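For practice. Supply one:
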Amino acid sequence: MIPAATLRPSADSDVPAIAAIYAHHVRTGLASFEIVPPTEEEIARRRLEVLKRGLPFLVAEFAGTVVGYAYASAYRARPAYRSTLEDSIYIHPNHARKGIGRLLLQALIADCEAKGYRQMIAVIGDSGNAPSIGLHRAFGFEHAGTLRSVGFKFGRWVDTVLMQRRLGPGDSKLPEGSI
């Protein structure tokens, strides 16, 4: 773990670093099923959508450099899903396996619980993505299913692993404004 890594809410000035980290994962990995990295303008737009919903978009910083980021977004748009979020975490390749993902996920979960959300879903690209599956399992996410061969990238079919974690009281108590 990087002892001096700090977490903070993302700022507009972080967009280039966030875009660069994500672009690396789009170009080289299966965590994202995007094929072409989005522009900085598109990353800025996506970030603002998260923030407009009052959801966390965090960055991890080391020595003044953004080395990872995480955010929560709506799992689905329909009102019945309003208590469920999806998490996303991306780490700069030079800082992988140093505990940054753990710091980010722990903070993301705490923030979402404090806001009253009840479930968090991890949609993990590639059933062979052991680091992401292990990270989520370490934070109480349970395997909820595998969607076989739903993506095609780098000349092969790719699975998606779904993992789920209760937030706060989960489904043991009705949410406010229940329908």
Summary: Residues 78 and 84 are 11 Å apart (CA to CA). The radius of gyration is 16 Å. The chain has a mean pLDDT of 95.
